[in-house]
């Protein structure tokens, strides 16, 4: 079953889930009963309008017989259903991550674990075509899902986006967050390794560490920016201090021009560095021109894309190229 992509949650999937579990769980009827119960003030309540306290348990073992509790809980709390199987190593890895993250959440969301081998009708109800499959439920309905063992940073991002979107709809989320107080995000050990190498001046090790992150997460902007900084720092520290004089004496010396631009950046003459390399692009061709262009683009990555100096240099580069 592993390796098959599961579609995102939808109204159609929700209807299918209700129909498939008709013999075990009637979601629509259960949701109505749960909502009616929630709207009744608790016995002895002295203050109307209070929010429910977060659940004491953040990880639940769920079966077909107890699946009703998942729907009830999702009226107040985000519930993440983990459809797993004992034969799958991916399931074991993902479940361990989800259990830890659920514990860290302090009740902002609850993990409901379902052994699909023992409870096949729940897996069928969700239309799960592979394991592991993870489904988020809110307000008695599936709202999002993914299949496969995603990297932990991607799972955190997915959970945070759900909490942000549902915070105003599910009072249990805000209640748990307020009870927990501000939580400091744990440091990513991969970045810690890279940063320590950089601080020690081991630029090769720092570059390798950031490249490993990007191999696993090609879209990680933080790693991209940090890698650009590491590469630049290594070049700038190794640059010939007389590179500017050599560049002035021989405008065709590409190595001197590139090193001079790095020195300009290191000394905060950003516009001068950009202008120098744009001028070199204008008077070169072929491999030399491409080499200078790539170096200039790498320098752009050291700055905010909205920086006007970068925007102007990009326009000048386009003009020089075309």
Describe the structure.
The protein has 322 residues and is of the alpha/beta class. It folds into three domains: 159 residues, Glutaredoxin; 50 residues, no CATH class; 82 residues. The chain is 57% helix and 9% strand. The protein has 15 helices and five strands. Strands 1-3-2-4-5 form a five-stranded mixed beta sheet, sandwiched between helices. The longest helix is centred in the last third of the chain and has 18 residues. The chain is elongated, with a radius of gyration of 28 Å. 30% of the residues are buried.
Please render the helix and strand layout as text.
Elements: H1 11-20, H2 27-39, E1 59-61, H3 68-74, E2 78-84, H4 89-105, E3 109-115, H5 120-126, E4 133-138, E5 141-147, H6 152-166, H7 171-180, H8 189-199, H9 203-216, H10 221-238, H11 243-249, H12 254-266, H13 270-282, H14 286-300, H15 308-321
Parallel strand pairs: 1-3, 2-3
Antiparallel strand pairs: 2-4, 4-5
Helix pairs in contact: 1-5, 8-9, 9-10, 10-12, 11-12, 12-13, 12-14, 13-14, 13-15
């Amino acid at each position: 079953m592993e390796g098959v992509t599961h579609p995102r949650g939808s109204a159609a999937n929700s209807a299918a889930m209700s129909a498939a579990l008709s013999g075990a769980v009637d979601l629509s009827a259960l949701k109505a009963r749960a909502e009616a119960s929630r709207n009744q003030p608790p016995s002895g309540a002295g203050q109307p309008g209070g929010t429910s306290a977060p659940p004491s348990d953040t990880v639940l073992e769920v079966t077909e017989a107890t699946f009703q509790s998942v729907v009830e809980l999702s009226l107040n709390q985000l519930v993440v259903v983990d459809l797993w199987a004992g034969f799958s190593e991916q399931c074991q890895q993902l479940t361990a991550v989800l259990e830890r993250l659920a514990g860290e959440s302090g009740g902002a969301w609850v993990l409901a674990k379902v052994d699909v081998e023992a409870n096949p009708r729940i897996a069928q109800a969700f239309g799960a075509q592979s394991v592991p499959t993870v489904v988020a439920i809110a307000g008695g309905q599936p709202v999002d899902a993914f299949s496969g063992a995603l990297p932990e940073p991607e799972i955190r991002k997915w959970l945070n986006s759900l909490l942000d979107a549902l915070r105003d709809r599910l009072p249990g989320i805000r209640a748990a967050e307020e009870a927990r107080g501000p939580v400091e995000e744990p440091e990513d050990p991969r970045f810690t390794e890279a940063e320590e190498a950089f601080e020690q001046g081991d630029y090769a090790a720092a570059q390798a560490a950031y490249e490993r992150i990007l191999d696993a997460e090609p879209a990680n902007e933080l790693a991209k920016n940090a890698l650009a900084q590491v590469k630049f720092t290594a070049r700038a520290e190794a640059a010939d201090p007389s590179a500017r004089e050599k560049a002035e004496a021989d405008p065709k010396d590409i190595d001197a021009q590139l090193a001079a631009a790095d020195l300009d950046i290191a000394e905060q003459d950003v516009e001068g560095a950009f202008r120098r390399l744009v001028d070199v692009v204008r008077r070169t061709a072929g491999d030399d021109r491409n080499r200078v262009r790539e170096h200039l683009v790498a320098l752009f990555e050291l700055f905010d894309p909205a920086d006007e100096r970068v925007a102007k240099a990009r326009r000048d580069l386009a003009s020089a190229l075309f």
